[in-house]
Design a protein that fits this description.
Jelly Rolls; 0% helix
Length: 335
């Protein structure tokens, strides 16, 4: 071929077809190339085709220089029957078209800047292997959407499966093969806020460790005991101070004295703690005016707490002649 290659400029259309002349026969050694330049800026309203016009012979070669900027708007571009990838519609590229004697073989090459050659439509199905993906390159945005409240777990044949995990109060539990979203049941329930509630009457004796129930865990009434101490004012030898050992930690809440034999004069009961300090508000006085069975009570308000091994002292005295008996009841709350 002599001289410069002749380039024909054709304008891109919003829809329709432009024709490229292909009648030129090849020489003995190399086919003379027909070159067409497609230019212009358009938005397609229909399909746009660049088609051969005339009768080619085998090895007829046509080069299409794409310099147009086209907005597809859902339409397509074809060059000699080959669909142009959407990604290249607004970029420069070269389409080399060779007639093999039966049909046109079209190769779409990268644009003049070398960009845009690797586009979605040029990638084969399942063509991206694991080794071609950079570590940590798959972001959440690249993952397929899953239903809100679901998690991905391994399913049958180890295939990833979306598991609905959002049921209120449910937890994820493994059964040795799969994982399931199940409600907490039996002796406890779980709220959606994470609060675990033990069912009434669910804690049996077998579930309580030996020696685990302390006095603090019992209702106050279950911790209350009473001790009855007989006191005599019948003779001088029976009147004075007597100590009584406390066997467990406690607080003396109340003291009741019952007349079991009428008094000749006033009999006084004074109660002291382990250190010899009077229990505030604990004194009981029984006068000769009290009848058999009458009760005199007091409520200690201080110095009334004891530990195991302490003693409580009862000091008795009379205002006159000896005579009379009482029964002292100590109301105690274990601590």
């Amino acid at each position: 071929m002599s001289g410069l290659e002749n380039i024909v400029t054709l304008n891109a259309l919003a829809s329709g077809t432009v024709n490229v002349h292909v009648d030129k026969a090849p020489s003995a050694t190399l086919s003379s190339a027909t070159t067409a330049r497609i230019a212009g800026t358009v938005t397609l309203s229909g399909s746009f085709n660049v088609s051969p016009s005339g009768t080619p012979i085998k090895n007829t070669s046509v080069k299409i220089l794409w310099e147009a900027s086209v907005t597809l708007s859902g339409n397509t571009i074809t060059i000699f029957g080959e669909t142009v990838p959407d990604e290249l519609a607004a970029t420069n590229f070269v389409a080399e078209c060779v007639y093999d004697g039966a049909a046109w073989v079209v190769n779409i090459l990268p644009d003049f800047a070398g960009t845009g050659i690797i586009a979605g439509k040029l990638l084969g199905t399942d063509s991206i292997s694991t080794t071609k993906i950079i570590d940590d390159a798959v972001t959440n945005a690249k993952l397929a959407n899953i239903t809100r409240g679901s998690v991905k777990v391994g399913g049958a044949s180890d295939a990833p499966t979306d598991l609905d995990a959002k049921t209120s109060g449910n937890i994820l539990v493994g059964d040795g093969t799969d994982i399931a979203s199940v409600a907490v049941s039996g002796d406890a329930t779980l709220s959606s806020a994470g609060a675990l509630t033990i069912a009434n009457s669910a804690v049996t004796t077998a579930k309580i460790d030996d020696a685990a129930v302390t006095a603090a865990k019992l209702d106050n009434d279950a911790n209350r005991v009473q001790v009855v101490i007989p006191v005599s004012f019948e003779s001088a030898g029976e009147i004075g101070a007597v100590d009584y050992k406390i066997c467990f930690p406690c607080t003396i809440e109340a003291i009741h004295g019952t007349v079991t034999k009428t008094f000749t004069s006033t009999g006084t009961h004074v109660f002291k703690d382990n250190g010899g300090t009077v229990l505030t508000g604990s004194q009981i006085d029984m006068s000769s005016a009290l009848l058999l069975g009458n009760i005199v009570s007091s409520t200690p308000t201080a110095n009334n707490t004891f530990v195991a091994g302490d003693v409580i002292r009862i000091e008795t005295s009379v205002s006159g002649g000896v005579g009379g008996k009482s029964s002292v009841t100590l109301c105690m709350l274990k601590s």
